[in-house]
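Sequence in, structure out.
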Amino acid sequence: MKTLTIAIPTYNMERWLPAAVESCLWQTHKDIEILIINDGSTDAGGAIADRYAELDGRVRHIRQPNGGHGSARRRGQDEATGDFITWLDADDFLAPTFAEKMLATAERDGVDMVCGNAVVFSDKTFNTRRYFPHPAASGLTFAASPDYWKSKVVWRWIFSLPFVRTGKDGAPFLYPDFRLGQDVCYMFETLLRVKAFSQCPDDVYFFRQEHKKSSGSLETEINHQLAHFAAVKGILLPQGRIKPFVKYVNENYWRDIKAIAPRLSDEERWTDRVIALGTALFRDTDPAWFEASFLAPELKANPELVPLASAFRAGDTAAARNLIGGLARNAEPDVDKTSAFHTLRRRIKAFFHPVSRMTRGMLHDLERRAASRSLPKPSSSR
């Protein structure tokens, strides 16, 4: 069977990194390489990575100055030596059969990419949901299966290393320099160019949810998160992939602009930047793309997005500014999901859910394995 490189970008993830690495070491397929890409961590993550490199020769600790997740993922791609590569976030974990089942699918079908199913779980309650699951399938293409726009996250896939290094007209696929959204750009580029991909039906990746909510500066939220939508446009529309572009923007841009708008009240220059990015995003788009008839059946139209998109499309700065202000004034307060009642209710629900019980059991097993290693203590506990 082929070999697999598992690249783990990490920045100040000392609390979760041990379980992630343990989930690599417990793979049933042993012919793997584990790259811990230390993106300038200032916590004990570097010492933890060193310890794992001492314990197992398949682990390499690679240090670099902080450059963001995209930079760390690029470094992993450059350093990899396996036949295939996958990326594991430092706070997530893999099922023991991840490498075995994903590589077996790739070899059986002779494809350069395989998607596996993923489980999203709560760090506090262990409530779970399956993340856009797909049944087993072979020889898929993005043109014939455009619903894979929902699977636009890099962490549930494996990629042939020769493909990601030469598949872009002889050049490598690269993560752009966005701190947010860069994996979406990478995924859409690879999906457009791969000859065929396959789907493994098993739940092989486990994504930890709560603390990943962005708490970045306005600069990061705007110049990285909002800016990546225009990059997605530049990838998809020239290839005629209108529906994946529109559906991604309809669902994700609207969510993000509503979250950012309340923070813009006293930030004139950032409001101007949001308007400039929105104008670039919606320029030359067809108003009909955002109507219910075009979006059905996967998504519902966002009637509130239509006037804002129209203002951006027309270059009407005053109207766009007024609509963004309205989003800020009408913002709904966040539901307090940290309350004791909310946490208890969801823990009870998770206790009786088989996927939640399985996820909790695997994570506790990984944590026990890590606790037996005499790892350096997290800096927060010293």
